[in-house]
Amino acid sequence: MTFWGADTNQLTAHGGLCTAQAQHLGQIAAQLHTTVVSTDWTGPDAERFRNDAHRLLTGDVAQLVGRLLETGKQLTREAEAQDLASQADGSSAGSTDSTGSTDRPGLPSPGGPADELGDVAGEQTVRVVAEPFGVGAGPVG
Question: Residue 88: pLDDT band by 50, 70, 90 thresholds?
Fold first, then answer.
């Protein structure tokens, strides 16, 4: 039985990217909070704006930062666990023979139509898009 796993180098790189971007987003949120509270603006609209900004930055944005940090850690843990499991049984995922053919019976070789579409063996790729003050996810394509 052949076991297929993720590309652990890509998992580790993506985990690092999630962590770095979470830290960057946290820095931007802190700078924005400082700017909002130090702006010379008074009145009910100013208070409402400050309260809304505070709620957003300490709620939704802080939650997103936390989720990105946890995702980065999880991806790194998954990559490490997979590397350890692969070392223990001596297997390597994604190997090819001398002709460049994959050892994935019934599936196209990497770089074929399935890779271009992001859909291999019925698994649909999902792209996560960060939009200002919100996160959306949907199928690629």
Answer: confident
